[in-house]
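B., you asked whether I could sanity-check this one before it goes into the benchmark set. Here's the sequence:
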Amino acid sequence: MCKFIIYGLVLLFISFTVKESTSSAENIPEHGKVMLVSLKMENNKHNIKKITIQPGQHPLTRRFVNEDQDNNPQLMVIDQQNNILYKTSFNYPKVQTVPPLPPGTPGDKTPSVIPIEDPEVTLIVPYFTRADLVLIVNPGESAPSAIGFVQDAEFMTNQEDYPPFEQKPSEPGKFHILIMASDYNANEMNKFRTQANKIKKIVLNTAPFKKYAENIKVHIYENQKDLGCFTGCYNIDRLTCCNQSKVISAAAKSGFNVDEIIIIHNTDTYSGGGYRENPGTYKDNSNSSYCVVYDGYYSSVMALHEFGHSFGNLCDEYSYGSEGYTYYNCVNCRKGCNNYPQSGKCQKGCDAKPRYYRPDNSVMYSLSYSFYNKASINAPYPPDGLKKRIQYFISK
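And here's what the prediction gave me:
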């Protein structure tokens, strides 16, 4: 009961006193440690499920409040004097994506996306020894909507689970992709590396990534920790789900800079999945989501497709004609084709909007294609084409 009273008083006090720290020297995080803040939206309210302090890498040059996203909530880390040590905008994934059927397979009634009713997100936050509270503040509100006590954080100190790593320096002007193993043991890492290098090759040789290959770093991480991945998620054989907190924790402690994550799960069952985010989330915490693929014949092209969802926020361009779920804005499934840049076709039917239009065929239409169409690449309009998204990272 006492803690609930303190909680209420703290909320009231902070709403009037939280302020920016005036000393940059005070805002230096501890080297080699991060906080993982696990959040869940329940009944339209933020809930801080867990705060974990662990070894990890945080590319501070990437994280700042995205001024374009006034409608996104903010996470703040404050000290006992209510100085803001760190803040960032964030958001939750809207839907989980289901891989398309293998080429040549008749369409079924399986939805291409699964709406997430109680979305979760885990954010990588720099760790400050002076940190006292973690606050979640909704746009337009002064009082926090959720609060977490850093003193209650779980410390990951087991060196067997979290061995020391060499922290890589942050690199402005680079876009970092982490390809991470799931459920491979030490004797199977050659198999993982082979598939990971195929994915690396197809990404770096596909427009628009090919043009910016010198600014893109693809890291292959031989993770052996459980990521909670499994096939048959939501009773859909070809949908793979993973534990988001475990994924982000493993990525943070990899020692690599991470902007986007691709997981290869050690199964030969045709399956995979990804997320579609709120527009603009890539500018806030792009490394809070991931896509996953199986280890098999279609893995590399499926990775290209699912990466189109998780990084590009692209829609599926195919339509089984009976989805009926909510349409979320994307650059390649539109009410009309007037603003499609350099598109040669305007074809009816895509994703959740069978009456909307898609541009030229691409990997988002079928795994028979191993490229993105020009509309997906060059779209200058929200939620931004792939080219504009990459340029956001490499220009920083």
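One thing to flag: DSSP finds seven helices and 20 strands in the chain. Otherwise nothing jumped out at me.
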